[in-house]
Write a structure and sequence with these properties.
Layout: E1 6-9, H1 15-28, H2 38-50, E2 54-61, E3 64-76, E4 81-91, H3 100-115, E5 117-122, H4 129-138, H5 151-157
Parallel strand pairs: 4-5
Antiparallel strand pairs: 1-2, 2-3, 3-4
Helix pairs in contact: 1-2
Length: 173
């Protein structure tokens, strides 16, 4: 029998499993090696339960939490409306191909439609061909590129060299 994914808001009882999922996600994305603690996961869940612009959904497969999506509702200046931004979406490797990522995105799309969002957008690492293949089957590629400044390095090294502009020089005659 094929298990049907269940998408739901997370509760405090999910904190230990969310901590495991977030730790696996951090490591898969090359993030910090330290594990997310259940206390940190509980704080995130609590925040999502009380912040209407923060959405934290879990994906159950076979009775176990196997994925999550963290999204935000944001002002969308161009349209004058609101949009959704998926910040993180992760499914455990053993649950991939089960429809969890698609179901998480579908649930966020339904929430966004009910809230009047103009669109739902997200970023994906360029080397993640499997995810890109899925996303192209359910969404159109966005017409923009993504950029970032690593602020943790700026704190250690001061302003990054890319942000430093030579001072304008005035030639005296």
């Amino acid at each position: 029998m094929v298990s049907v994914p269940t998408i739901r808001a997370l509760s405090a009882a999910d904190a230990p499993r969310l901590a495991d999922l977030a730790t696996a996600y951090r490591r898969a994305m090359g993030g910090p090696a330290e594990a997310m603690t259940p206390g940190q996961a509980a704080a995130l869940i609590e925040r999502a339960l009380h912040a209407p612009d923060l959405l934290l959904l879990g994906a159950d497969c076979g009775g176990a939490l196997a994925g999550f999506a963290l999204a935000f509702e944001l002002p969308e200046i161009i349209s004058g409306g609101r949009a959704g931004q998926i910040d993180d979406l992760f499914v455990m490797p053993e649950a991939r191909g089960s429809g969890l990522a698609r179901a998480l995105i579908r649930q966020l799309t339904e929430i966004g439609t009910a809230r009047g969002w103009t669109h739902l957008r997200w970023l994906v690492p360029q080397e993640n061909a499997t995810a890109i293949h899925l996303y192209r089957s359910i969404a159109d590629p966005a017409p923009w590129d993504s950029f970032r400044i690593d602020l943790s390095r700026c704190a250690d090294e001061g302003p990054s060299a890319r942000n430093r502009r030579p001072a304008a020089s005035v030639e005296k005659r």
